[in-house]
Known about the structure:
Mean pLDDT: 89
Order of helices and strands: EHEHEHEHEHEHEHEEEEEEEHHH
Strand content: 25-35%
CATH class of the largest domain: Alpha Beta
Distance between the termini: 78 Å
Number of helices: 10
Helix content: 25-40%
Number of strands: 14
Number of domains: 2
Radius of gyration: 22 Å
Largest sheet: 8 strands, mixed
Amino acid sequence: MNKIKIGVVGVGHMGKHHVKSYVALKHICELVGIYDIDQVKGEEIAQSYGIKSCSSLQDLLGKVEAVTIATPTSTHYEIARTALEKGLDVLIEKPITSTVEEAEKLLLLAKKKDRVLQVGHIERFNPAVIELPKILQDQRIIALNMERMGPFDPRIEDTDVIQDLMIHDIDILRFLLQQPVKDLQAYGSVVRSSNGHIDFAVANLLMDEDIIASLTASRVTSKKVRRLTITTLAAFIELDYIERRITISHRGGYASLDHFSEYHQENKVERIFSSDEEPLRNQLAHFVECCRKGTKPIISGADGLEALRISKTVQDQIIKGLQVLPKVDQEVIK
Length: 334
């Protein structure tokens, strides 16, 4: 089997994990080199893994067949466009681009060049998420509650909590329900970001079959939470992304109490522990396989576009909401 020659563009917080995972996948691909605008950082990462740090983006793209793009979102479009124009397969970290228009252009270019375009919505490769559709089979879903919260991270300066965190759950919601959004209401606030980015957001979505989904994203919460709960007609299902654990509370029948004339409802609790497989490694192995066979990835450019489109609607609603409530003139209320 010929190994796909891979490069990584951007070796910051996420990019360095891509490098580590590609090195671990050396049996199916060859990590040829990396490029980062910070040459010192690039050299440090390259030396630690015994690979080449290229002096320019063009230098790296000329040596590989496929690339991972793990740079700030604002740079995704130009880098991906350049790579696709050169005939390379591309994996872009989420969100796919800064704007819907940019994403649409990339999709058209990838189709024209007949290249793989995958978006890094990593939670789809979480073993618990992979298991979930089997559990939901034949279940009538009533509502979903999705929480993705954690402490403030000053390193994340180029995007808000919607693009940083909520977009993961938007993608999972689309994956699980496979239906359009009928209505959407969103609220949010700027708490700690000095650049005015939204730090806390809640979005309530009404899906096509009148399923209600509530999404909460926060980067000002002391405890890290990654949780999905699903209410169905017959069960209550909890998924912990961090523990990769699913807990199912089944609604049982009614049983009589010995000394009372009342009845109580019996619930059966079932816990499912998924495998310890590393989601990022699974994601990159899938990308390599798609590059090798020329097949469509699980999370395509179209999936990335739709997640971005919904996230932009959430942003727009929050921004309009903030505009509707101007600051009160203190002189008026004295």
